[in-house]
Amino acid sequence: MAELVSSPQQVIDNVVRYSEHPDPLSDFMAITRAWYAVQRDDQWLFGPSKFVGYVEMTPERYLDAEYIYVKRGRVDAAGTVMDRRITEGIIRKWSQPIEPGHPLYEELWKALAIFCARYQKKPNSRARLSVLVGAQLEMPVELDDDLVALMIAIFERLTLAQRGTFRRAVD
Questions:
Q1: Are 2 and 65 in contact, with CB atoms under 8 Å apart?
Q2: In whole angstroms, what is the distance from residue 40 CA to residue 94 CA?
Q3: 88-105: string of b/e by CB count within 10 Å (b at 16+)?
Q4: How buried is 22 (Cβ within 10 angstroms: 0-12 exposed, 13-18 middle, 19+ buried)?
Q5: How many CA atoms lie within 13 A of 115 on its CB side?
Q6: pLDDT at 81
Q7: Cα torsion through 61, 16, 99, 122, rounded to 10
Q8: What is the pLDDT averaged over residues 30-58?
Q9: For FRET with 85, which of 5, 47, 48, 113 sits at 20 to 30 Å CA-CA?
Q10: CA 90/CA 146 separation, integer angstroms
Q11: Higher model confidence: residue 158 or residue 120?
């Protein structure tokens, strides 16, 4: 049964595992929308959310799960649907999105493009990049924008219910 990750280290381990053996899954690189990155020894390693969001995922386990169109995902032998929307919701709390204008944006896109090119693939033009933070890599949040700083200050004062409403409105 596909078990969801419960720590950032499990995600990091999966990113490393994916980066070491992406060959069997390279056909999915061009359609992957959510990539998570970890820096090791001055090199960026990448893994897709649906792969890195499950405990001790391997290419074999991933490919053994049958793709079912109506469920919009792979279903393992126990009937668990492997869904990127679920994994992204979990991994989001341990990662920082890297968007245009972020100091790492160009570097990460170039590294992802080089990684995919090794398998004759290009990253999806609508792909999103995030860097895992915490135990492995600390990324300071840079707030050059006064409006963003104000929005964060207001968000931190919201109740949990109000934060949920806000997140749904902006997603």
A1: yes
A2: 17
A3: beebeebbbebeeebebe
A4: buried
A5: 27
A6: 64
A7: -70
A8: 92
A9: 113
A10: 29
A11: 120
The whole-number average pLDDT for the span 87-105 is 91
| Distance between CA atoms of residues 5 and 14, nearest Å | 10
Full 3-state SS string of 20-80: HCCHHHHHHHHHCCEEEEEEECCEEEEEEHHHHCECCCCHHHHHHCEEEHHHCEEECCCCC
Three-class HEC string of 92-131: HHHEEEECCCCCCHHHHHHHHHHHHHCCCCCCCCCCEEEE
Residue 149 tokens read as 């700083």
Token readout for 94 is: 């341990």
Task: Please tell me the distance from the alpha carbon of residue 95 to that of residue 130, in angstroms, as a whole number.
Answer: 6
Contact (Cβ atoms closer than 8 angstroms) between residue 37 and residue 44: yes
Q: Which amino acid makes up residue 28?
A: F
